[in-house]
Amino acid sequence: MTIDGEYEPSPWDWVREQVETYERTGGREANTLRDTGLPVIVVTTRGNKSGKLRKTPLMRVEHDGEYALVASMGGAPKNPVWYYNLKAHPDAVVIQDGAEPFEAELHELSGDERDVWWKRAVAAFPPYAEYQEKTERVIPVFVARPRA
User: Fold this and answer.
1) Which of 66, 83, 102, 108 has its Cβ near the most Cβ atoms within 10 Å?
2) Following DSSP, what letter does each residue of 85-126 receive, concatenated?
3) What is the phi-psi region of residue 51: left when phi exceeds 0, alpha when psi lies from -120 to 50, beta otherwise?
4) Could you give phi then psi for residue 93, rounded to 5 degrees?
5) Residue 3 domain-assigned?
6) What is the rounded distance in angstroms from the CA atom of residue 58 to the CA atom of residue 43?
7) 79 lies in a domain?
8) SS3 state at 13
């Protein structure tokens, strides 16, 4: 599954290299966050300003075939750019968790649903709890599932 459009690789070398290796090997390589051993997925979005395709490795937070996309940006005071891509183009999202990418539908979480997924996210990647403490913003969480 793909989204039509021109792909613009990340300006960050490590992100660009991880995405390229992950896709080239069907997720057999470059499937963890650097040297942590913790698994990642690759999320493709459409740029909210450029309209170009962007690919971002995110922590793998999966439950019953659904995925949390946590816009932590390490606890920075602002949301990551890909958050705005999802807000602008929620119908243009592809997730790759292993060999086969799939088109996803998603929605931003709030209330009890966000609380449940936040706990899952922290269990999968404990630094999320520290990131939330570092920032005044509530870190956004989306849930994504394969498009029907």
Assistant:
1) 83
2) HHHH-TT-EEEESSS-EEEEEEEE--HHHHHHHHHHHHHH-T
3) left
4) -135, 130
5) no
6) 7
7) yes
8) helix
State what percent of residues in the chain have pLDDT above 70: 99
Q: What is the pLDDT of residue 48?
A: 96
CB contact burial 33-70 (16+ within 10 A = b; e otherwise): beeeeebbbbbbbbbbeeeebbbbbbbbbeeeeebbbb
Region of 38 (left: φ > 0; alpha: ψ -120 to 50; beta: rest) is beta
Range of the domain at 130: 13-146
pTM: 0.95
3-state secondary structure of 24: helix
- What tokens appear for 93 in the block? 């999202």
What pLDDT band is residue 10 in, cutting at 50, 70 and 90? very high
CATH number, residue 130: 2.30.110.10
β-pair partners for 58: 41
Task: Using only the alpha carbons of the chain, give its radius of gyration.
Answer: 14
Name the one residue in this structure whose structure tokens are 């995925």: 67
